[in-house]
Write a structure and sequence with these properties.
Endonuclease, Chain A; alpha/beta; 12% strand; 283 residues; 434 Repressor (Amino-terminal Domain)
Amino acid sequence: MGEPTVRKRQLGAKLRQLRHHKGLKLDEVAARTSLPESKVNRVELGRLGIKPDDLDRLLDLYDVADEALRSVLHSIARHGSRRGWWQTYRDLISPAYADLISLEADAQSMRSYQTTLIPGLLQTAAYARATLTATGMTSTPEEVNRLVEVRMARQSVLTRPEPLELWAVIHEAALHPRIKSRPQTMKEQLQWLLDKQELPNVSIQVLPLSAPRHVGMIGSFVMFGFPETADLDVVYLENLTNALYVEDHPEVSRYGSAFERLRAAALPFDSSADLIERLKDSI
């Protein structure tokens, strides 16, 4: 059995919600659609994809007349099982990382709060290589090079025809030089941030060291927004060995509120750019 993807879980959760709204049990759904109960259950758990005709049978049973919602769910069903460019690196990247890349490819917006590192979508190759070397404790030089390739390829979502809307709040601590032997790496990275914020779909704010206590002290997080409906938004949390996806709508909403507080506590755009420029010039 393959690992469930976030998009499959999203689809399954929505179908389960629709079934509960109709007051139907799994065995009743199976009897009225001729779909095996085990199959419906596995789809709802995100462990199995679903064919368009079978999806329509479920949506008809649940009286889903909203054509926009039906279109969205069909789109998620298609994307949940698709093979992306990142499959070329499946021997190197974890399922959780593949999910992250898939979400970046599908999302309309991304809100990122980072405390110690520049967001991956805003990193230079040199900075990415330095941080991957430091944090990938068992990675070989060849693996690091391939991981840098992945990180650079991910950034294409910012310049595609309908680009990802990225709003990044970066703690000032992440902007100070940490690679003492290669100051030019950080200097170029800070200039890259200044260049990237010129993109109309990229917004960058700096949370200064002088900021009072704030909700971001709990750690970094990333929120993905989708054009379909807010209850399909996802939060990504990363740790040393794996990643956690928060998909429960009330919990995701709390992260949304936290990000709004961080935006309010951060410096305005112009002041953020001025601080980045001063830090770059001081290196």
